Amino acid sequence: MEIILKWVLSISLLLFLLPNMSTSEEEPVKAVLIDFLHKLSIENKNIDSDLLWNTSTDPCTGGWIGVYCDKHNITVQKIVLEGLHLDGYIHLSRLCAERPITVLSLKQNNLQGGLPDDIGGCKRLTQLFLGGNRLSGPLPSSLSSLNNLKRLDISDNMFSGPLPPDLSKISGLITFSAQNNNLNGSIPGFDFENFDDFNVSYNDFSGPIPEGGGQLSYMSFVGNPGLCGEPLKNACPPPMTQSSSKKKMKMLGRLLILLSGYIVLGLVLLCFVVFKLIKRRKANNTPEKLVGGAPERRSSGSSSSATKSTIEGGGHSSVTKSTIEGGPSRSEYSIATTTENSSLVVLQNPSMNVRKTLRFEDLLKAPAELMGRGRFGSLYKVMLEDGRTMVVKRIKGWGIEREEFEKRMGRLDEVRHRGVLPALAFYCSKQEKLLVYQYQPNGSLFSLLHGNQNGQAFNWASRLNVASNIASALAHMHKELQLDGIAHGNLKSSNILMDHHMDPLITEYGLAPTIITTNQNLPNTFESDVYSLGVVLLELLTGKTVQNNGPELARWVQSVVQEEWTVEVFDKVLVLDGSSEDRMVHLLRIALKCIDPAPEARPRAGEVAAMIECVKEDEERSLVSDTSLVGE
């Protein structure tokens, strides 16, 4: 009985002491966090009050803005202080000593100074985001000791000096963004296959791009005049060794000797020719050699005429050059083709009366401008004599029978949707196919996202509307052409044009030759169209460019979402514009369903269109609600 009583008293004492012990350990952590924040902010002395950082409340449960804890709300793990106009300095020694911080994001502020060497003490860091500040100086070598680091963003700062040489030894690094700094030296030998995002553009790096860098986009390295090698256009000079230098000098000596011999031989031949000419002139001047009569003078004249270019060896459709008669030479382009069965089939189109006015001869002689080349052919902008502008798609190497192609074009002409650009006419031969479309001057969705927007606002509402229209158009085509087995086969943002109302038009539907696609090892099926639609949705949400049909972008998005860092996925333009994060996340989930690795698990295009329509309706209800609140 006495033993049991002692045991009960010990347990009671321990339960009494545990809360006090926990409180005494938390107090230093709070002080360190608030001290870290004060050093980040110089001008705003009340930054702790603004963010509700208070020693009287718990960092995990007291509503501290920018502080995120583990799932048990016990330990601080993430600190996210973005876009808060912080103008101070980074001090990390005490912070990392007190708590195992895994994520630190201070991007889009005005922080100054350098990155301290004590960053090496933050051993648990997996993500470090410092982009968009005024940080300067060299990167500390201790940065290379962060072996758990997966994402590192130091872009848009003023860092200088070389990269730490051991930075490339962080095996788990999948994001490295260092663009728009003053970094120099050579690029370490990273394992580029591991990266979802790698960018060192617009610095002062020099030397050859390491092995494996050629598989990345040239945009990852552009803006470094001293860099060479793939994927950049300027090739690296071959390395100069001492032995090769000696060989070159020896070869140069031999070349000089050989050249001297040729010069001597040339002088001898010249003297011989001069001697012969003098001797012949003397012979011609003798009376007995003189031929009577005036010599016949050959008149020479020049005539200018226009030269019509043709393609030798079969006369396939091509870009050719011609000259203008009676004036200075200039380059023009025209589309030439074979005369074999040169009949242009004009399709029914209620929007344009082209059946009587569009002739094959007009297309052949009209000037044409090459707009681009792709996997399946070339695209030309053709200007007819009457002022109309057309686009001609030329497809070569498609082994489809003429009858089957004509049947396919007729079926596509029957199945119309306002979101799909119809062909006006087509030409078919064994060697090639030509398709004629109405020109759309507002460019493609790709150029709107990644190029010149021509003053057009492309906010969240516009992108959601584009996503809804594309999905609806694709769903209609899939429904009508299911039995025909005609999918799009090559859906991407550059194949989606914007009409005069800035609404999307899917182009080139059903015109991709059946091949094995690179992104999922499947033929051109309806399931692969849904995958491509998902990639377009990701492109709208992230603002990132797509390479190799989108698997890199899909992997990057999935890895970020798995790390519960979803907001990092979205385009900064959308985030800064205050777009609804809930509805963006909803659209992101739809996109992730579309890119499911298992084709049978992907939704149908009609289901995707219905899901996006729900998001759109929710957005419209929210706008109406906001408007009514403003009216009140």
TrEMBL record:
Query: Where are the bilayer-spanning segments?
Result: 251-275
Q: Which residues form a coiled coil?
A: none
Q: Which residues form the Protein kinase domain?
A: 365-615
Q: Name one GO cellular component term.
A: membrane
Query: In its keyword annotation, does this UniProt entry include Transcription regulation?
Result: no
Report the GO molecular function annotations: ATP binding; protein kinase activity
Main location as per UniProt:
membrane
Instruction: Kindly list the places in or outside the cell where this protein is found, as annotated in its UniProt entry.
Output: Membrane
Which stretches does the entry tag as region Disordered?
A: 287-332
Family annotation (InterPro entries)? Kinase-like_dom_sf, Leu-rich_rpt, LRR_dom_sf, PRK1-6/SRF4-like, Prot_kinase_dom
Q: Which Pfam families match?
A: LRR_1, Pkinase
Its domain of life reads Eukaryota
Q: What keywords sit in the KW lines?
A: Kinase, Leucine-rich repeat, Membrane, Receptor, Repeat, Signal, Transferase, Transmembrane, Transmembrane helix
> Which residues belong to the signal peptide in this entry?
1-24
Record-linked PANTHER family: (WILD MALAYSIAN BANANA) HYPOTHETICAL PROTEIN, LEUCINE-RICH REPEAT RECEPTOR-LIKE PROTEIN KINASE PXC1
Mind telling me what this protein is named?
Inactive receptor kinase
